[in-house]
Design a protein that fits this description.
Elements: E1 3-7, E2 21-26, H1 34-42, H2 48-65, E3 66-76, E4 79-83, E5 86-90, H3 92-103, E6 106-114, E7 139-146, H4 158-162, H5 167-173, E8 177-178, H6 198-208, E9 214-217, H7 224-231, E10 235-240, H8 243-255, E11 260-261
Parallel strand pairs: 1-10, 1-11, 2-3, 2-9, 6-8, 9-10
Antiparallel strand pairs: 3-7, 4-5, 6-7
S-adenosylmethionine is lined by residues 9-11, 27-29, 39, 193-196, 219, 221-222, 224, 239-242, 245.
């Protein structure tokens, strides 16, 4: 299936038609994580609320391009940072939930992606003395939203039937905590791009889209969502704002032998 790759801005989604996308799967830059500070600053965001204002513009554009019944999945992690002398949690998942509901999305039960770790004792605090240690943030979220009522299908829709998962897959995938998908290797070249693993994209695409659907990743980075979508018989559109990352995604698509169209 072809992939369309656009150098552009998720806040506008120029070139993506209204009501054209069945499933948007994405991982945005995470507010309050040093890796993404410069990018948020370039968009004029100075603080936590400002960073979420930037992301909310993207959620609003995604709402525009989703077809009725279309779904949005957002992979996001919370953050820890000291601001004005106070070290605290910045609950990105909760803020995105609130912002998306305010836009009009229907929130759905979400997934907790617990990355298996090689450091079970990763720990922030002082020795073994209570009460001032911190719980480790070892889960990320996959938030799920729908635009409007359930998507309608004809009885015995052949594309839907061809997209079925097995009973074993259903039993494993539709539990809330996923602990069987490793994160992208830390320190590897893909971790610096914030890439998520293709296993995560494959599973979510099979759960929430149908063969032949159009899938969008508005913060597509290295294109993980797009290559998984193409392999799984979905059409894909990716949007990336950074020209260096965009060119890298173009090269990756070509290396994988996936036809990539540019506007
Ligand atoms: C967490 S990374 C996504 C990684 C991606 N899931 C992958 O597997 O490679 C977020 C990406 O969004 C891009 N980005 C940030 N702001 C953007 C915007 N306004 N429009 C489009 N892309 C943006 C960043 O350059 C970065 O590549």
């Amino acid at each position: 299936m072809p992939v369309r790759l656009l150098l552009g801005d998720a806040r506008r989604l120029d070139g993506v038609a209204d009501d054209s996308v069945a499933f948007a799967l994405t991982s945005p830059p995470y507010p309050m994580i040093p890796q993404w500070d410069a990018q948020f600053r370039a968009f004029g965001a100075r603080d936590y609320a400002g960073m979420h204002d930037v992301l909310a513009d993207a959620w609003r554009s995604i709402y525009r391009v989703l077809l009725p019944g279309g779904l949005l999945a957002v992979n996001i992690g919370d953050a820890l940072r000291r601001v004005d002398g106070v070290f605290r949690l910045w609950p990105n998942h909760a803020t995105i939930l609130e912002r998306c509901v305010a836009i009009g999305f229907t929130p759905l039960p979400y997934l907790l992606w617990k990355k298996p770790t090689n450091k079970p004792n990763a720990f922030l605090g002082s020795g073994f003395l209570p009460p001032n240690a911190y719980v480790t943030l070892d889960c990320e979220y996959v938030l799920l939203f729908r635009k409007g009522p359930l998507r309608a299908f004809a009885r015995h829709d052949p594309a839907r039937a061809a997209s079925a998962y097995s009973r074993a897959e259903r039993d494993r995938w539709f539990t809330q905590v996923w602990d069987d998908i490793r994160g992208t290797r830390q320190g590897g070249p893909r971790s610096r791009t914030g890439a998520f693993p293709s296993e995560l994209a494959d599973r979510l695409l099979r759960m929430f889209s149908v063969r032949g659907d159009t899938v969008l990743d508005p913060f597509c980075g290295t294109g993980t969502t797009l290559w998984s979508a193409a392999r799984l018989g979905r059409r894909a559109v990716g949007v990336e704002v950074d020209p260096v990352v965009y060119r890298r995604a173009l090269r990756t698509g070509r290396a994988l032998g996936i036809p990539v169209r540019r506007p």
